[in-house]
Amino acid sequence: MNHNDRDAGVMRIYEQLVEIEQRLIPTGLHVFGRPAELKEKADLLRMVASFDRPEFGALALPELIAEALGINSYDSLLQETSASETKDLIHSIVGESVRQFCHGGSDSAAKWLSAKANVEVQKSLPVFLLLANIAEQLDSNHEIDSLLRSLRGEYIEPGPGADIVQNPQVLPTGRNTHAVNPYSVPSQLAFTRAKLTTDALLRRHFEEHGRYPRAMALVLWGLDNIKTQGEGVAQALHLLGVRPVRDALNRATEIEVIPLEELKRPRMDLVMTVSGIFRDLFAPTMALLDKAVRRVAALDEPLEMNYVRRNVFEKIDGDGGGFDDAVARVFSNAPGSYGTNVNFMVMESQWETSDALGDLFVTRKCFAYTRDSKGQTIEGREARELMDQALSRVEATYQNIDSFEVGITDVDHYFEYLGGISKAVEKRAQARPAIYLSDSLSPQTRIRSLEETIRLETRTKTLNPKWYEGMLRIYTDIAKTFLLDPSMFARLQELNPYSVRSLTKRLLEAHDRGYWNPDEEILEKLREAIENLGKINSVIGPTFERKT
Ligand code: BEZ
Ligand code: MG
After folding, report:
1. Kind and range of the H or E element at 382?
2. FRET partner for 255 with CA separation of 20 to 30 A, picked from 62, 238, 315, 500?
3. What atom of ligand 1 comes closest to residue 275's alpha carbon?
4. Ligand 1 center to 284 CA (angstroms)
């Protein structure tokens, strides 16, 4: 290895370490009614301060600091791997200024930043005033009060549903979360951000495969699109090469085609599988996506620049079917039905070959939401063959991740959806698709492969003491509160012996699987409890077998 190769290798390792170090992770679960602790608050505020907040007249702190240090553009700095020392310096100044803020308030933080990094007080003060507002609201937790009021049938003030970092106006918590107006989706900000993400996604695929995918499969979720005001939807529109247009009532009900000269790449063909929640919340958006596909398919453009048209024509030429069948691209469950059930199949170990997982996904999701030849809306027509055909052309699958709170290794829903569709594609296209996820939680969106995402999450969560200690505290608290306090234990056993047994089993399982390592005394008591509870086993099935 020569010096240059060695230096480049060290730099790559360094970049990966920084990525792991800077990733925001939740430590433990939110405890209802309990305000954030200082450390958690500081992490959140640092993250909030890393975004431009034009609505509050505040610029991102890293940019203000970069500017004051005479660095031209923080954005371009981020793209350069070689400028790590400068990046480190900026991040440490941001972190320290937020710590100053937490201890001394806005004025003192702004003065510190001026003395330390030459950032003008009048520029940094709006950021710290925003942080002060957020910090105060993080401290005032109305969750229990609101719960009690709602139980008394009183009115609970509404508040937007979003991620704290993306929209601090979700605070204070303990309000009646309302979703979004589906007609407002996607927002201008979502559409702007989506361009960066989809450019990066297509660039990555091109670099790895030497061409764009023949077709892509996207997973769209409801809650995610609420939180981001439709970033996932905006990404789909960008990939197709269209933009939303608002009508006289400011509703995004129309689309406008982005000319190929401006797009500078082919229009992508997409198979969109949406969750039941998305279908229920975003009916106008489903119609918008369907409209966009139809419009793009009908454009008089060279087939090599319009993959929707190319695939639609190929299908019509192949089977003589009609245009309306050939453009069906928005799929979900049957009306009134939710989920893929792939997660249950996995958890119950009810599968032999992984084809069964993909087949189940299609069985559940093969309902087309589209229009007929007369323009009538069709809400969920079973169209298994159409979905099979559409998936057989797919070469890349993709889902947008937009929350630092829940990652793909935390809940079963990512593998039921992105895993389910990827397996369905693998069988139908007879090749494993490239599987990508975006990370749109940080100011710079990033595309990662499935493998990279799992590696990063495992390093920053599963294997990170900061994360698992937070989780483990919860196991111990649960054991102490419900199982090891004799009077509570007796009460629960009286009320619901099944639930006590299940809770005890789960804790012992957590220990046996190596997730929880409490004192031997606690374990002994739990084992004793399971033995006593064993008397009701015959009624409710076998106890969890502990490995020795
Ligand atoms: C959704 O927001 O659409 C969703 C949430 C959890 C699981 C699946 C879908
Ligand atoms: Mg669930």
Report:
1. strand 377-382
2. 315
3. 3
4. 18
Instruction: Round to whole Å and give the CA distance between 548 and 545.
Output: 9
CA distance 403 to 164: 10
User: What confidence score (pLDDT) does residue 83 get?
Assistant: 61
pLDDT at 156: 93
CA of 413 to the centre of ligand 2 (A): 7
Return the beta strands (E) in 173-213 as ranges: 176-178
Amino acid making up residue 513: R
Strand runs labelled E in 143-262: 158-160, 176-178, 216-220, 242-246, 252-257
3-state secondary structure 481-496: HHHCCHHHHHHHHHHC
Give the pLDDT of residue 71. Answer: 80
Please name which ligand lies nearest the alpha carbon of 279.
1
**pLDDT of 167:** 77
For residue 79, what pLDDT is reported? 61
Note every long-range contact of 506-510, with CB atoms under 8 Å and residues 24 or more positions apart, other chains counting: 506/544, 507/475, 507/478, 507/479, 507/483, 508/544, 508/546, 509/544, 510/475
- Per-position b or e across 380-415, b if 16+ CB within 10 A of its CB: beebeebbebbbebbbbbbbbbbbbeebbeeeebbb
DSSP 185: P
CA distances from 174 to 131, 138, 165 (A): 20, 11, 17
Candidate of 218, 272, 277, 402 to mutate for ligand 1, largest count of ligand atoms within 8 Å of Cβ: 277
Distance between terminal CA atoms of the chain?
48
Ligand 1-lining residues (CB < 6 angstroms):
221-224, 275, 277-278, 413
Cα(388) to centroid of ligand 1, in Å? 23
Q: What three-state secondary structure class fits 231?
A: helix
Q: Nearest ligand to the C-alpha of residue 223?
A: 1
Contact 222, 215 (CB under 8 A): no
Those residues of the chain that have pLDDT short of 70 are 27-28, 72-83, 179, 441-444, 515, 534-548
Task: Give residue 318's pLDDT.
Answer: 94
Residue 190 CA, ligand 1 centroid: distance in Å: 19
Kindly give the number of the ligand 1 atom that is closest to the alpha carbon of 278: 3
pLDDT value, residue 86? 82
